[in-house]
């Protein structure tokens, strides 16, 4: 059987699939050529990340397809229900990238509270001629320790983020309409651990209480954070989105940043991805990454081997 890993797969995933008797194709096929390639090469399994979309047209055109796999959590680039209605298995790897995304959240938080994103832009330009001026400009940082982190969506990634926040000495609050409460176990290098319970509260109360807010929700039909939500937040709040583009109203975000209501934002995902708006890309108060939440070697190894395990189980 053949597996097309159109957006790539880790070496560990390839080896596991090959050991299970599968041929793995890692040729990058253009979106408009995927269906033809699948049919011409008798591909049984198509694996994607976020770049390739598997919509109804591809599903209809490829009657021999047995599995569609997403290396990651969200499956908004796959017509899941339609695929299942055609007898195709749809799989993903919800647990594999949680720690990687959570660490990126804190990369953006640290960048925001200490102006790293802006100083890294300006030091190469002015570091030799305006050192004291830059030192003064970036002198008003704040600590994360002792502050309140509001987590919108306390699923696997939200929980991983909560663990890191607790380890830093932050207070953690959460809002999740599907998870009323969750026990968070923070494990240490020597085998010891502590466990605390986080009880979900209303979104409005979270927005009012949090010093920093991080979003961990799937793609939505509308905004979770818009102009009205920014208005009720604390002055000087920081906000991070490493979940999905379109959950924050970017026009309202820029307005809130310009007014000082929001001190900084960290964005890994964007409304108009893969072509983010220039007002977002050029804003001095936004820390930017190009949708790399799960892009660590460790996460990709876990994703590859987990996909391989599911495929072997389903098709053996």
TrEMBL record:
CDD domains assigned: PGDH_2
Domain D-isomer specific 2-hydroxyacid dehydrogenase catalytic residues, every copy: 8-315
D-isomer specific 2-hydroxyacid dehydrogenase NAD-binding domain mapped to chain residues: 107-293
InterPro entries assigned: D-2-hydroxyacid_DH, D-isomer_2_OHA_DH_cat_dom, D-isomer_DH_NAD-bd, NAD(P)-bd_dom_sf
Pfam families, sorted: 2-Hacid_dh (PF00389), 2-Hacid_dh_C (PF02826)
Keywords linked to the UniProt accession: NAD, Oxidoreductase
Domain of life where this protein originates: Bacteria
Family: Belongs to the D-isomer specific 2-hydroxyacid dehydrogenase family.
The name this protein goes by in its record: D-2-hydroxyacid dehydrogenase
